[in-house]
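#dry-run=false #mode=assembly
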Amino acid sequence: MNWELLLQLVINGVILGTLYGVVAMCFTLIYKASQVVNFAQGEFLLIGAWVCWWLLTSFALPFWLGFLITFAFMMAFGILLQVVVLRPLIGEPVISVIMVTIGLSIFFQAMVKWLFGVIVQPFPPIFETKTVDILGLNVQPAYLMSFVISILIMAAFAWFFKTSRLGLAMRATAFDQQVAQSLGISVKKVFAMAWAISAIVSALAGVVFGIVNGVSSALSFFGIKVFPAVIVGGLDSIVGAVIGGLIIGILENVAEFADSQFLHVGNLYTIAPFYILVIILMIKPYGLFGTEKIERV
Amino acid sequence: MSRLSLVPCGEFKTSYRADTTLFATPLSRNMVFLGVVLLALAPLSIGGWRPVSDYWITLLIQIGYLGIAALGLNILVGFTGQISLGHAAFFGFGAFSSAWLNNTFGVPVALSIPLAGVMTTAVGMIVGIPAARIKGLYLAIATLASQFILQDFFARADWFTGGSAGSLAEPFALFGYVLRGDRQYFYVVLFFLVVMYLFAANMLRTRDGRALVAVRDHYLSAEVMGINLTKYRILSFGISSFYAGIGGALFAHYLQYVSIEGFDILLSVQFLGMIIIGGLGSIMGSLMGTAFMVLLPEAINAVVNILKNTTWGNIPAVTDGLAFFKQAAIGLAIVLFLIFEPDGLARRWRLIKAYWKLYPFSY
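#status=ok
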């Protein structure tokens, strides 16, 4: 047993898992608010990271300004997407809604590749590359920053839904749309805001991941990885999404460890979450924290 | 009532037999026969003159084998209401199975294609087991997972797929006569397409076919009426995989080489795009959608070629972006169809027929 490698991988898993958790949270936010399963979540990360990279490298903007412009852009993008594409599909069958987001995802993937190329591009460095020592292990400051930012985002989400007026309106809408409407909440606005927030926070996750690993089309795979996370946690639970993300992040790395040390099957890192996904769907489809709709099939 | 030559302006059917007939009028039946005969004549060359160019033959073959797979997906998604994001994996499984049966056991290709369909059916039913318990978007996510798991299996199972080297597939042979070239292979695809099309069209006239539609429309009522939901959900996965397997096997023996690349999520989405663009729950529509999906990249190609001759052609972004435009067009077509024509080309076709039926007095 190589304990040091295992510990290193688990720490990587926790750091990556918090990032999965953030993306899963954004996914759940959209699902809860507007009952849309967003297969284009990964493209939010992709577009956000590329736009930010482009602003920082082409115009040499300072970081804070680049981030702010990116977020403003993503907000407009999220709202526009909801209003133009998703709003006409309210009340359509599940397959239509799923397919429209898949179509969008393919469209944006191709367009981003066309606009920015297919090569991995590094972000301009923010930190000096001195590693930080945690439990005798070397951790890059960028990873640490990613972890801290993820935790901050989660705290902000908790505050937003617990106390802010808009957050409460969103929870009310998620609970019952008609009742929310009768209480004077504009459901349309809530839908658009959910998409905007989801797009902004996903873009932030994309930028953070881009700073650590460089920006590339691989970012859109987050949109697929998010499914095991949300299913483990329960599709409509934000807390579940965070915990599911952590579980999947750690599981991936432990699978990698088992693979490299004992099993030698290869590629277990990418594929293990999907086995878990199928198992969870078979035995407990509503996940750890999801609302159980009792429906005998 | 004797057979009418034209469709009456209303419902005058007096028996269930008339309601479920394949062809409403002799005219429509003759038109279908004419269409098949014309297709059968397409690859012929008369004294060196070829009415259909080689390139169009390859496109027609593509429409054929993809269309068979799309038909299967439409039975699953359009008729039973189950969503599958893993159809490309079944298509690939069929391709590898046929090559494997042929290479390892020496099963003749004419037999290995249907056997590949049977093998894929078995796999499809195993993957469809979650469908017994879950539906809607949960099922979509489960089939997404199976897509990745099967893709991983392709990369891993060297004995079955040849690993990263891929596997070779023999050309199609019948009673010792080897069919060479696209023009001869065209008939194989046409034969399978007609058989599978008729099978699908006829299956929907049986109790089993109606049961599938009942499961889609209201599963509770269906169960109350004595339809075994679990059985029909899994059966539907089996049938759709059978079609995918046949389509994949035809694809394998057409290219005579199967690579583990290419059976990815994008192809699954393309299959779904075909049936959405063609029309969910329309057998004819599946083929129309497939034709649309196959011809769309060709149209993009043509547009870019025209642009190359104008001042736009000097912009490198236009000429280099061809592959990306093709991919973007697939996504865009799906989105636009869902927003503006959710019932697909099949509905458009019905509208055109209705327009000409009442022409010129369409009130």
